[in-house]
Amino acid sequence: MNRKFVILALFIVFSCGAFSQQKDDKGIYLTAEKMPVIKGGMAAIGKKVQYPRIAKEMGIQGVVYVGFIVDAEGKVIEPKILKSLAKPLDEEALRVITKEVQFTPGYYQGKAVPVRMVLPIRFRI
C-alpha cells in the first residue's frame, strides 16, 4: 500500500511538470501562466477595423480566424489566415492584427515568452 502511494505521488509530481508548459516543436508556448492580452481589449480591434467597401457592397459578413505568435516583446509575428471569409476581409484582418493592435506579452514563470494564439475577427455590416 505504501509503495503504491509513493509511486502515485512521484507520477503526479513528474507529470505536473511535463504538462504545465505546453510548447510546439519550435519552442513556442501554446499556453502560458499569463496569456498575452490585447491593449484596449477586443473593443480596440472593433474600433480599428475598416470594413472594405467591396465586401460591404456585396454584403459579405462573418468571421475571419487569424493565427499568429505574440513574441516576448508583445509584437505579432508570423500572422496567417486560418479560416478565410473573402480576400478583402482577410487582408483587413491581417492589417489590423499586424499594424493596429498592440499586445502585452505572455509570461511563464515570471519571464516573457512567445505564445501562439488564434483570434477571431468578426465582420458585420
Structure description:
The chain has 125 residues and is an alpha+beta fold. The chain has a single domain (24-123), classed as TonB (TolA/TonB C-terminal domain, 2-Layer Sandwich). Helix content is 38%, strand content 29%. It has helices spanning 2-20, 41-48, 53-58, 87-100; strands at residues 37-38, 62-70, 76-83, 103-104, 106-108, 111-113, 115-123. The strands form three sheets. A three-stranded antiparallel β-sheet has the order 3-2-7, covered by helices on one side. A two-stranded antiparallel sheet has the order 1-4. It has a two-stranded antiparallel ribbon with strand order 5-6. The chain is elongated and about 50 Å long. The chain starts with a helix and ends with a strand. The model has no long low-confidence stretch (mean pLDDT 87).
